[in-house]
């Protein structure tokens, strides 16, 4: 069997749901489980409604109700489907009335609130799939065995879910049922609704795929897969047909927001491939994420990415030389202030590191200054090259040559901890130009073979 996950933009309205139905129908022989996000901007509208209930004591679900009832009408689903979702809309309105009365929105209540998006989405989509001749059944995630901890807004599924999911879904698939399951949500042992945090809907799909031992997990987005660069920066960025889990995770962490690293973990553990496809361009091959590449790529670089609004901190002290525990002392300061470090480079007497934060770092600097000289520089960007680090000399020669031609000063370099990642720091204002020129260098004309070719 396979798992097919569709994001919010893929089920944004009636036309999108019809299109998703066509995509699913073509793969019915593969026994799919469909996982859906909330329709379009529904999650944002739910949070707006909660904000209004808190601030103005007004309760309105007009946008949410209008979108879902219009979609039912546009799909010609009739009163039966409308009657199926009206209790959910009534429950939502009662919840918002409670928020308005108490003037409080806890993590637990917030998870309950946003769950309505997915719960409405699967009921409408399943009704349409049935109308199109498929034996579809809408299911909330807890109906298939999603039992989580009580860490609201960022819950983790318990070990029991791995046994419950195949026990619940296996018989349905054998009976020819098409399960249409809510992504992103679960229930804890006390029966309270939880959400799975960032990348939660994709993670729902990969957990189901891993628990079921699926052939593959398909994640349908509104892009052609993982690209060689951000298409907003590089007009001729092209899809990368095959990447490893490690490459995909590094790309995601350093700015390519196609698939969150957490979402890949279940399939990585079970060696199940993840296929990223474009629901608006289903004929495109997409990107397949696998444990390892069958052959060595011709090109030294797989993809480029960048992330702006970075803070660079230079820490220097002669006390570092030969002093055990100095680095531990430095990083304990960051831990005390709750600041996460991204990229690190060290020498005998200095440490350079980056932070993805714009917060006030005055207190952090004051603590660090007790043990070393500290310089904090804002307005920086990380440019990341994902590729074959065994060819790092070639990659660095070409990358630094490009920066030199542009008159760009590289302010820090990090390579070594990752087998696929070389990162360097430039000014934020220079990053887009650097990425564009690097893309020309590594993927442009001049006899370079296409990214998908193998030696």
Written account of the structure:
There is one protein chain. The protein is α/β, with parallel strands linked by helices and 455 residues long. The protein has 2 domains: 214 residues, 3-Layer(aba) Sandwich (Carbamate kinase), CATH 3.40.1160.10; 143 residues, VC0802-like (2-Layer Sandwich). The chain is 40% helix and 22% strand. An 8-stranded mixed sheet has the order 3-5-2-1-8-10-11-9, with helices on both faces.
Topology (elements, then pairings):
Elements: E1 2-6, H1 14-25, E2 32-36, H2 42-56, H3 62-74, H4 78-102, H5 107-131, E3 136-139, E4 147-148, H6 160-174, E5 178-182, E6 185-188, E7 193-195, H7 200-212, E8 216-221, E9 242-244, H8 245-253, H9 261-270, E10 274-278, E11 287-290, E12 301-316, H10 326-336, E13 341-346, E14 350-355, H11 362-368, E15 373-387, H12 392-406, E16 412-415, E17 421-427, H13 431-443
Helix pairs in contact: 2-4, 2-5, 3-4, 4-5, 6-7, 7-9, 8-9, 12-13
Features:
single chain, 455 residues, alpha/beta, Carbamate kinase, VC0802-like, 2 domains, 8-stranded mixed sheet, 6-stranded antiparallel sheet, 13 helices, 17 strands, 22% strand, disordered C terminus
What is the gist of this entry?
The chain has 13 helices and 17 strands. The protein is an alpha/beta fold and 455 residues long.
């Amino acid at each position: 069997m396979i798992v097919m996950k569709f994001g919010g933009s893929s089920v944004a309205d009636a036309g999108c749901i019809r299109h998703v139905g066509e995509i699913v129908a073509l793969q019915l022989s593969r026994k799919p489980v469909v996982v859906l996000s909330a329709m379009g901007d529904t999650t944002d509208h739910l949070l707006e409604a909660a904000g209004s209930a808190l601030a103005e004591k007004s309760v309105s679900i007009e946008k949410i109700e209008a979108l879902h009832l219009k979609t039912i009408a546009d799909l010609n689903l009739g009163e039966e489907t409308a009657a199926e979702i009206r209790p959910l809309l009534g429950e939502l309105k009662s919840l918002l009335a409670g928020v308005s009365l108490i003037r409080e929105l806890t993590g637990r209540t917030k998870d309950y609130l946003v769950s309505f998006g997915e719960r409405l989405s699967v009921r409408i989509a399943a009704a349409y799939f049935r109308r199109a001749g498929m034996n579809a059944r809408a299911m909330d995630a807890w109906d298939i065995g999603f039992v989580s901890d009580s860490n609201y807004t960022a819950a983790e599924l318990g070990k029991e879910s791995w046994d419950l999911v195949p026990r619940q879904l296996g018989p349905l698939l054998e009976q020819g049922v098409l399960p249409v399951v809510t992504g992103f949500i679960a229930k804890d042992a006390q029966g309270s609704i939880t959400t799975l945090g960032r990348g939660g809907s994709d993670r729902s799909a990969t957990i189901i795929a891993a628990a079921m031992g699926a052939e593959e997990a398909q994640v349908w987005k509104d892009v052609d897969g993982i690209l060689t660069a951000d298409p907003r920066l590089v007009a001729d960025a092209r899809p990368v047909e095959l990447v490893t889990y490690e490459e995909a995770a590094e790309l995601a962490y350093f700015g390519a927001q196609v698939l969150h690293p957490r979402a890949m973990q279940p399939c990585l553990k079970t060696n199940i491939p993840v296929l990223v496809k474009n629901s608006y361009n289903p004929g495109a091959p997409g990107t397949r994420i696998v444990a390892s590449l069958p052959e060595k790529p011709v090109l030294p670089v797989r993809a480029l990415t960048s992330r702006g609004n970075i803070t660079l901190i230079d820490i220097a002290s002669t006390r570092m030389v030969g002093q055990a525990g100095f680095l531990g002392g430095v990083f304990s300061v960051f831990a005390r202030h709750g600041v996460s470090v991204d990229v690190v480079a060290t020498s005998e007497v200095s440490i350079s590191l980056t932070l993805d934060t714009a917060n006030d770092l005055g207190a952090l600097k004051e603590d660090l200054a007790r043990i070393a000289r500290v310089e904090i520089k804002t307005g920086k960007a990380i440019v990341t090259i994902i590729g074959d680090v065994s060819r790092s000399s070639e990659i660095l020669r070409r990358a630094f040559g490009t920066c030199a031609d542009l008159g760009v000063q590289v302010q820090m370099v990090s390579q070594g901890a990752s087998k696929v990642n070389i990162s360097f720091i430039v000014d934020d204002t220079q990053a887009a130009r650097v990425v564009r020129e690097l893309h020309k260098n590594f993927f442009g004309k001049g006899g370079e073979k296409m990214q998908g070719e193998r030696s």
